[in-house]
Amino acid sequence: KDIKIATAVGVLRSLLGRRIFDSLYADLGAVYDISANTFFVLNDVGLFLIDTSFEASKLKSVMKALGSEIEKVANEDIPESELKHHIKRLNQTSPMSFDYITSAIGWLTAGLYFDNRIYMPDEMIKIRNNTKIKTIKKIIKNIFKKSYLQVSAIGPISQKDLADASKILI
């Protein structure tokens, strides 16, 4: 249980979400929408969800692009400027998150859950500013293991096509 790791996961969510969005939506035009979210479930268990919608005929290209972006972030050097950009964006929106009750509850409960205390936005910004690339890479190597990945689909996709596309994910 560590608020610094949880904060780094939030930075990873932002960074990977933007890369996937740029690849699948902006560059390929393959998806209608995309989001990356994280949920901490238990002490040492959480979910990292990538949710998107697209035409069934683009399943393999979407899965290939998802796997490629995860692999790039996991194996290649993340430019310090890219990391700092995502941290800056998150820092700018943090104080505003208290305007939404679910976000405010998330802030409060995360601090209580991880450290038995409440963190104010300026404290979280300091923690986030100290996020290092090596921490993000360590997290990626721990959470994006093939044995952990689950793929689900809603719509006209056969189980065989889903299984075949899942093999190329990573």
Polypeptide structure, described:
There is one protein chain. With 170 residues, this protein is mainly α. The protein contains 7 helices and 2 strands; from the N terminus they run αββαααααα. Strands 1-2 form a two-stranded antiparallel ribbon. A hairpin with a 5-residue loop joins β1 and β2. The radius of gyration is 17 Å and the shape is globular. 16% of the residues are buried.
Features:
2 strands, two-stranded antiparallel ribbon, 7 helices, mainly alpha, globular, single chain, 170 residues
Itemize the secondary structure elements and their pairings.
Layout: H1 3-27, E1 31-40, E2 46-54, H2 59-75, H3 80-97, H4 101-115, H5 121-129, H6 133-143, H7 159-167
Q: Looking at the structure, what is the overall shape?
A: globular
Fraction of residues in helices? Answer: 55-70%
| Terminal residue distance | 28 Å
Structural class: mainly alpha
- Overall mean pLDDT stands at 79
- The SSE order reads HEEHHHHHH
Strand percentage, roughly? 5-15%
Provide the gyration radius in Å.
17 Å
Number of strands: 2
Count of helical stretches: 7
Catalogue the unreliable spans.
none
State the strand order across the main sheet.
1-2
Largest sheet: 2 strands, antiparallel
